[in-house]
Amino acid sequence: MKYCYFLLLCLFSLVGNSQSLKKAEGSYAFRGVNVVDVQSGSIVSNTNVLVSNGKIVKVGRNKQKLPKGTVVIDAQGKFVMPGMYDMHAHFPNVDGEPFPVDDYLFLNLSRGITSLRIMRGAPVVLDWKQKIINKDVIGPTLYVGSPALVVDEKLQKQDLRTLLAGYQRDGYDFIKYLGGNNQGVYDSINHIAKEIGIKVAGHGPPMGLEAAVNAGQSSVEHIEPFIGLYLYDSTRYAAAMNKFVEKRLWSCPDLYWYLIYGYQIPKQKLLASPGIEYVSKELVARWEKELYGIDSAALKRKYDSYSFRINAYKKLLAYKDKQGVNLLVSPGDGVFIIPGYSYFEEMKLFAQCGMSNANILRACTYNAAQYFDDDNLGKIEANQNADIVLLDANPLLDITNVTKISGVMVRGQWFSKKEIDEKLSAIKKKYNN
């Protein structure tokens, strides 16, 4: 996946585009705006939100004395909500798709995604994380997982405490578990991680969902662990999910990924995916070849297999929501998954499963902040970090209104719709000459 063409694009676009969007934090006042309370699923109407130096300073209807130089944004009739989190991202040119990095970051940001949980880290990703913190690069905040742990013979010979503590010391935000059929080592990873104060997230272990719940793995990715136990023994599944809720564990299904790789979306619809104009023609062609380079019989088998699992999981997702499972949102990563744009496809799937708009918005914002034990994000209220999305319409009434973006603020840096559109136009022009 590491093509010189894409790496060169990445380097050129970083120098030519990211720097042009750098801007200092300042003071901003959103006047007459409607605040989406994602915790209660309600609206605080016609109020004012004051931001200064990267923080929300005040939310209220009373007239506020504005700091000198405050940029006043007339937000009458508009809605503000917290910035969203993509909770299962893979970093480009590391183990993700070969997007130029600044395009990847901006496409996410342009769709209101102000934080990314990077599921497999590397030193180069930590470097990008620091560049963003230092404001050398514009992009969502990165929460970076460790290099993936696979319980194999090599790992079993290592001192796990030293390994995990080293990843924590290096600046990784959580431990990424990928697989390996040794329950003793798996349990030790989770036990040591708890003792040193770092989370474990990743695939369910081969031993199954019950093993993940008993070990207290903080976040279980994908649908297989849930479907596997449910189809094997629904009574044991129900008991495991009760413990899942009691232990405050988290689930990130990446359902849209399964629709793509299970051929549930017609080819022509994929080729016209929202945001595909911001992807190079070479990459789209590679995606098409990778996905459809199989014979019709194999495609039919995969379609049938995925269709059965997806439809079963959709029923489980609605029940998980009602049961109070902490859900996280991401379309996953892979072919035809377009940064920022495919995120909304996952939101639509949650809605199709019967989740309320309020619960979907909570999963995208407050739930994710709580996963990281961060009380400074995920809400629009005083003392919160200023990650904000300004919308033209109420997302509680219609989840599609999340795409009607009038501006995005990340860590107190404001990008108007005009600025976003100009940058998107430049990306589109680069790939459509």
Please render the helix and strand layout as text.
Layout: H1 4-18, E1 27-37, E2 42-52, E3 55-60, E4 71-74, E5 79-82, E6 84-89, H2 101-110, E7 113-118, H3 123-133, E8 141-144, E9 149-150, H4 153-156, H5 160-170, E10 174-179, H6 183-196, E11 199-203, H7 209-215, E12 219-221, H8 224-232, H9 234-246, E13 250-252, H10 255-261, H11 267-271, H12 281-292, H13 296-323, E14 326-327, H14 341-352, H15 357-364, H16 366-371, E15 388-391, E16 405-410, E17 413-416, H17 417-431
Parallel strand pairs: 1-4, 1-5, 6-7, 7-8, 9-10, 10-11, 11-12, 12-13, 13-14
Antiparallel strand pairs: 1-2, 2-3, 5-15, 15-16, 16-17
Helix pairs in contact: 2-17, 5-6, 7-9, 8-9, 10-13
Defining traits:
single chain; 433 residues; alpha/beta; 17 helices; 43% helix; globular; hydrolase activity, acting on carbon-nitrogen (but not peptide) bonds; Imidazolonepropionase; signal
Beta strands, count: 17
How much strand content do the residues show?
15-25%
Count of separate DSSP helical elements: 17
Strand-pairing-aware structural class: alpha/beta
Q: What share of residues is helical?
A: 40-55%
The major sheet is characterized as: 8 strands, mixed
Shape: globular
